[in-house]
Amino acid sequence: MKIYSMTATFGKLAHQTLTLQPGLNIIEAPNEWGKSTWSAFLLAMLYGIDTRARTTKDAIADKERYAPWSGAPMEGSMDICWNGRNITIERRTKGRLIFGEFRAYETDTGLEVPELTALNCGTMLLGVERSVFTRAGFLKMSDLPVTQDDALRRRLNNLVTTGDEDSAGETLAQKLKELKNKCRYNRTGLLPQAEAQRDRLEEQLRFLQDLAGQTARLQERQQELEERVRLLQNHKAALDYAESQAETRHIGDAVRSTEALQEKCDALQAQCAQLPSEEEAERAKTQLQHLHHSSMSLQMEQQMLPAAPEKPQVPARYEGLSGEQAVAAAKSDRIFVTELQTQQKSGKKLAKLGTVLLCLLVLAAGALLPIQPVAQIALAAAGAVLGIAGLVLLILGNAKVKKNDAQIHVMLAKYAAIEPSAWEEDAAKFAAALDSYAKARKEYDETATELNGRRQALLEQLQELTKGEPIAECLEKWERVTATHRSFADAQRDFRRAQEQLATLRAITKEVPAPEFADTLTYTRSETDAQLSSAAYELKQNQLRLGQYQGQAEALGQEAALRTQLKQVKNRIEQLEDVYFALELAQKALSAATSELQRRFAPRISKRAQELFSKLTDGRYQKLVLTEDLTMDTAAEQEGTLHGSQYRSDGTVDQLYLALRLAVAEELTPNAPLVLDDAMVRFDDTRLAIALHILEEFAQDKQVILFTCQSREKRLQGE
């Protein structure tokens, strides 16, 4: 198969196309260009995507890893050449099923290619399973070492041991295994089935014998239970007869009790006829109780009434005055005191003026001594006038001050220690206190009057109801009337109930015949019922088990027929055991032959791998040994012993496994392309040139696709 082109919407690829040529294709591109994505796309187009895989902490499932970055559905197509036919393969996402739609058709005509399906596409085109192709023809740097799986091992073994991938030896081994498994495989197969049939027949025979013994015991027990039931039923009949006799006596007692109750009703009815009705008694009692309760509540309300408010104490200055008069008097007194204080100030001024004039008179007298007599006389006359005036003023001023002081003292004494400026406020407080008292007194008087009125009305109502009798005696009288009516109602109810019970007793009482035979049991009725129920239940279960055992015995068949079948099955088991033993011998012989052939497997692959490895290393390594698990030991020139790959450099190890990969690919995937993804990055230039030469030789027979992030490959190819 050869690939012409691939178009992908896959991962980072968005409707991108990669065109290829027959032979060697070297695709040089930088990291993150999409080389590994194209490789994964090629595998997905051939073998599909496992949609059942789930992402784990160690690996991302392909359906998520390669989901298109653009958000478009995953899809792609490939133009290929297969068996001389140009074919186009398409896979598209269908609904939620990734790559769920597959189509293969001839590129030129569009005709369907029915032999290619979504499941077999890769196997049909390449001739190998996916696991074989990824290990033989699909090389990446990260997994150059070749590991085993069942498909790869089977193909390599068949190819090497028989030269044919469809090995008759393995087919024979499979047939022997299938025949052996048909005889015995764990708990299935003909032998286990026959042994199970033998065990089943033996168990049936044992069970049949057990059934016979159990049936005999059940039949014996059934006879015992039937006799037990007969005795219990007779005892129950005796109990019924005794109860019937007792019920007859109960009817007589009930008749006498009913008659006594009727007499009681008649007497109470006559007594009630002479009394007020029960409704009147209840109504009077209720009214009396209500009025008595209201009276007690009113009395308690009067007791809880607060004391009458006390009139505030009247100061002497306000004696005989109302609040408004006290405020007016305080205001008048304040004004009067203010005027007196003003007059007192003017008197003091006159006294001061007189004092000044007297002082001037004294000074003038001192000044007259050196003056002429005529002048002294004139001045003396003037001084006398001034002195008299000053003295008069002094006397008048002091008199006025003393008078005002006396009046002010009287007014201040009237108001005690209160300042004149606060007299009106004090009077206002007194007026407010009088006003509050008047209001409180009015409310108190109204409340007391209202309570007294209510109490008087209650007393009048009580007087009307009791007619002057004590309340307790009246209540007791009405209570007796009520009790008498209730006793009459109770007696009527008891009489009706007694009549109903008598009627019920007469209805349920039936004549019961005497028991069939003498009763010797002493159980009570409940014990008898329990014993009879238990015996009847056991008898029923016993009958059911008898029926089951008889049915099981009939289902098992006759003992003679079972023994005949058992003998036939044992003979068949002996024959199958002989066949199984023969198959084991044949299987061991074939296994020994296959082991001998498998010992030829390693030399054939290792010979070709050794040739390629020697070329890759320019003749340095001439010896290579391949084990059955595809690990390799090598020896370079001048080395006397073989060494494993862990003793070689990274580049040499890559070359070693590339040689093995190419050898395996030659054998197992001759028709498949060879894909290499950065598989030679650790090769030096010399060995890389040799590897390119080897790939060009391979490209003569198959298409080779080499993805690389380096420019060395194209440069060395051109040299």
What would you note in describing this structure?
The protein is of the alpha/beta class and 719 residues long. The two termini are 29 Å apart. The chain is built from 18 helices and 12 strands. The chain is flat, with a radius of gyration of 70 Å. It has a 5-stranded antiparallel beta sheet, with helices on one face. Strands 3-12-11-7 form a 4-stranded parallel beta sheet, with helices on both faces. Strands 8-9-10 form a 3-stranded antiparallel beta sheet. About 3% of the residues have low confidence.
Compute the number of helices. 18
Shape from CA axes? flat
Number of strands: 12
Beginning-to-end CA distance, first to last residue: 29 Å
Give a short account of the largest sheet.
Answer: 5 strands, antiparallel
Report the order of strands and helices.
EEEHHEEEHHEHHHHHHHHHHHEEEHEHEH
Structural class: alpha/beta
Strand order of the largest sheet: 2-1-4-5-6
**Helical percentage:** 55-70%
Averaged pLDDT, please? Answer: 80
The value of Rg in angstroms is 70 Å
Give the low-confidence spans.
146-153, 158-167
Sheet-strand content, in percent, reads 5-15%
Topology:
Layout: E1 2-10, E2 13-19, E3 24-28, H1 35-47, H2 62-65, E4 75-82, E5 85-94, E6 97-106, H3 121-126, H4 130-136, E7 138-140, H5 150-162, H6 168-183, H7 190-273, H8 278-303, H9 323-367, H10 373-414, H11 423-466, H12 471-508, H13 525-556, H14 559-598, H15 601-616, E8 621-626, E9 632-636, E10 643-644, H16 650-668, E11 674-677, H17 685-698, E12 704-708, H18 712-718
Parallel strand pairs: 3-12, 7-11, 11-12
Antiparallel strand pairs: 1-2, 1-4, 4-5, 5-6, 8-9, 9-10
